[in-house]
Each structure stands twice: as structure tokens, then as C-alpha cells.
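Write out the 3D structure for:
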Amino acid sequence: MANHIFILAAVMLLAGVFGGLVNFYLNSQTDPDATSLPRCIVVGIGASFLVPVILDVVSSELIIESQADPSKLLIFTGFCLISAIISRLFISNLSERILIQAQSAHHKTDNVQHDLRMIKDELVPLIETETEQDIETVFSDDEVLLAHKELDITSSKVLKTLGTGRFIFRSVVGLCREANADENTMSRTLTVLVARDLAGKVSGKNGVRWYITEKGRRVLETI
């Protein structure tokens, strides 16, 4: 394998030099003042050594196949020569392609992180509901009684609706239907319950959903 890598490096170097020379003579015919031989050779070598990168980007196995098949090595040499001849265009397009893929990967990462945060927000209430806790260490009975006394009739009714329905995550429309209340009243009541840590809300793909907290369940037991 080491010998094959040495051969590939030699091929890329020679193809880069030769392609740079071809590029120099082609450009000197149209604009002699805009070209220089050392620059064309350096750029050609650089473009030639970028061929393995572009092959990896397109998931090509040409480099591995060329180890056992001399014809594949000849094809690889041709790629290096072509990239050296069109070095400026090749490097520019490769840079743009890598940048686009990097931006796409970053965008996908942001979407995955957003989805994970949404899943986490939805799972936490489920875990808290299904997990037995030493609740006495979380809040005292006095706090529960105080929270109960601060509830009005509407808040008590909404809290009971949150805790006794068949769904853990409730929509405003469903709560209004079961509690026989209008949306404005329900929204204000839910905001009060959230502020008192008796209810919580999560934002998912289906919109905002509301749920009763463990403290809310303790208060509900006293109603």
C-alpha cells in the first residue's frame, strides 16, 4: 500500500507539472501578460493533488481499484492531467462544492439539534409522570396547600381537565371543549398555571401542547 501511495504521489506531481505547462502555453496564446510559467506549474500541481479529494467527495473507489488494475491507474493519471490543465476552473469549482456541502451539513446539524430539543421537551414530562420520586424533598405540603388556596374556580377546573384527560399533552382546543371555556380564558388560565409551576407547555410539530406538572398533580389531589 505504501508503494502504491508513492506511485500515486509521483503521478500527481508529474501530471501537475505537465498540465501546468500545457495550461501555460494555452493561456499565453490569448493573453501573454496574464500568465507565468512558475505560477501555472504550481497551480497545476495543486489541482492535481486535489483529485483524490474530489474522488472521495463523489464516493469513487478509483484510487483503491488502481492498486490492482493498471488501467485504473491510467484513468487516474488522466484525471490529474485534466485537472492540472483546467487548474483554475477546477480549484474554483471544487472550493464552491466543498463550501456548499459544508453549509448543507451545518444546516442538517441545526435541524437535528432542533428535533432533539423538541423530543427532549416532549419526553421530560412523560418521564416525570411515569417515574416515582421522593416528592417530599421537592416541595412541602404547605406549598401544595398554598398553591391550592391561590387557585380560583376556573384555574381548578382547567387543572383538573389537564390531569384527568386521556392525553398527557393537551391542545387549547381540546381543553376548551372539555372545560367548556373560550380560548381567551383558557389561554390566560394556562399562563397562570405555568407561572405557578402547576402546568407546563412544549412546542412540537403539532404546535403548542400543555401538560400538568408533578406539583400540579399534588395540588389536584387536594381539590
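Residues 2-100 form one domain.
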